[in-house]
């Protein structure tokens, strides 16, 4: 079959991204415009600002991706875009632009679920390495700032089919990293800073046990068959536990000192955060990260055993965490379970994963209609 070049567009949260991927297995170009500087002052993503930044960046980002790939609008075979889930305004910018391009260039439009994109980020890089033979069933843990989901994946004809076997009942793991970092005056985004500081503390200093969830999810939108075997997560409690620890141990003065010291530095580096973190903070950070990582690893491997998974994929922004990777590699290898991660550059949101996920849909002729609309709460099936 002739090579198929797909232009991917991603704008679900705070990165404006475009990429060109050949036949779902070769990354030709990838451009990501980050909004970290815009949202840093607020300690989190401001949806309205995110939408405005996408409007400002989407045209030059797409043009740069095509230029880097040596392609034109006429020489691509399809346009893929994130339909959801994500921030409603952000999704609308990418989707509207992709629909306009599809109409103007006369190229088919393919709608992609953002979560499936994260799964295909791993598959894309494995195919580039020559690994085309994954063993099924595949268990995929998608863990990021907005999502913590477990999917059992299989192939049907040319498409992938997903069955949700676990998810967070409240907050995502990545959100817990960001909120704890904000509480401790460690900047935004918090995940990379926590990952950098954790090895400098004692991970056994503070005990953060996780409850084992056995009752059904009370949220009607998340209801499943009562007989379904579920492995769910919860990360709202550990955020509260860190807050209580800070209050009971009298850490407020040290947090104030760190904030004042870092305020005088225009762009604090990771080393700056380390230099202004006392032992108590470092021990708390290390203990928090160890608790979250252990919970993710333990529950994902429990699900793998429950469903006799032959392959484990760990993807999403939190998959870039060093301790998480080491934990999964160690524990999964002991059980003889192959585990794969995306590279760090494809762990966070990007358009290469959207273009890669669109390829099986291209082969199956699953093209979107002109009436396609974004869906901020889109489910993966």
Write a brief structural summary.
The chain is α/β, with parallel strands linked by helices. About 45% of the residues lie in helices and about 15% in strands. It contains 13 helices and ten strands.
Could you explain the architecture of this structure?
44% of the residues lie in helices and 17% in strands. It contains 13 helices and 10 strands. A hairpin with a 4-residue loop joins strand 1 and strand 2 (15-22). Helix 4 (114-128) packs across helix 13 (352-364), helix 5 crosses helix 6 and helix 5 packs parallel to helix 7. It is globular. The two termini are 28 Å apart.
Shape: globular
Low-pLDDT sequence parts: none
Derived from helix and strand composition plus strand pairing, the structural class reads alpha/beta
Helix content: 40-55%
Helix-strand sequence: EEEHHEHEHEEEHHHHHHEHEHH
- Radius of gyration over C-alpha positions, nearest whole angstrom: 21 Å
Strand content: 15-25%
Tell me the number of strands.
Answer: 10
Separation, N- and C-terminal Cα atoms: 28 Å
| Major sheet details | 5 strands, mixed
Strand order of the largest sheet: 3-2-1-4-5
Mean pLDDT: 93
Secondary structure elements and pairings:
Elements: E1 5-10, E2 15-22, E3 26-34, H1 36-39, H2 47-69, E4 78-84, H3 88-105, E5 109-113, H4 114-128, E6 138-143, E7 148-156, E8 159-167, H5 173-183, H6 190-197, H7 236-248, H8 252-263, H9 270-275, H10 279-306, E9 311-315, H11 322-334, E10 339-340, H12 344-347, H13 352-364
Parallel strand pairs: 1-4, 4-5, 6-9, 9-10
Antiparallel strand pairs: 1-2, 2-3, 6-7, 7-8
Helix pairs in contact: 2-3, 4-13, 5-6, 5-7, 10-11
């Amino acid at each position: 079959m002739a090579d198929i070049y797909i232009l991917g567009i991603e704008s679900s949260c705070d990165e404006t991204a475009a990429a060109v991927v050949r036949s779902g297995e070769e990354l030709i170009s990838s451009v990501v415009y980050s909004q970290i500087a815009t949202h840093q002052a607020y300690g989190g993503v401001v949806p309205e600002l995110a939408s405005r930044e996408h409007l400002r960046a989407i045209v030059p980002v797409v043009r740069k991706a095509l230029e880097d790939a040596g392609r034109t609008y006429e020489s691509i075979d399809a346009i893929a875009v994130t339909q959801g889930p994500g921030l409603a305004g952000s999704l609308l910018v990418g989707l509207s632009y992709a629909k306009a391009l599809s109409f103007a260039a006369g190229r088919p439009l393919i709608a992609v679920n953002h979560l499936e994109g994260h799964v295909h980020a791993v598959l894309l890089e494995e195919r580039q390495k020559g690994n085309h033979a994954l063993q099924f069933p595949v268990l995929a843990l998608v863990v990021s700032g907005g999502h913590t989901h477990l999917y059992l994946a299989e192939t049907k004809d040319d498409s992938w089919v997903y069955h949700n076997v676990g998810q967070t009942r409240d907050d995502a793991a990545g959100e817990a990293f960001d909120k704890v970092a904000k509480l401790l005056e460690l900047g935004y985004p918090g995940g990379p800073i926590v990952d950098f500081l954790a090895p400098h503390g004692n991970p056994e200093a503070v005990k953060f046990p996780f409850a084992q969830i056995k009752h059904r999810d009370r949220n009607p939108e998340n209801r499943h068959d009562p007989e379904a075997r579920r492995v769910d997560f919860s990360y709202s409690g550990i955020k509260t536990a860190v807050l209580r620890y800070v209050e009971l141990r009298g850490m407020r003065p040290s947090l104030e000192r760190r904030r004042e010291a870092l305020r005088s530095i225009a762009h604090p580096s990771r080393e700056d955060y380390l230099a202004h973190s006392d032992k108590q903070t470092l021990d708390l950070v290390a203990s928090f990260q160890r608790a979250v990582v252990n919970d993710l690893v333990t529950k994902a491997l429990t699900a793998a055993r429950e469903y006799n998974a032959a392959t484990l994929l760990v993807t999403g922004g939190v998959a870039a965490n060093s301790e998480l990777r080491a934990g999964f590699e160690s524990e999964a290898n002991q059980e003889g379970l192959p585990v794969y991660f995306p590279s760090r550059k494809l762990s966070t949101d990007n358009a290469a994963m959207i273009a890669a996920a669109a390829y099986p849909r291209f082969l199956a002729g699953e093209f979107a209609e002109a009436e396609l609309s974004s869906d901020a709460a889109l489910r993966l099936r």
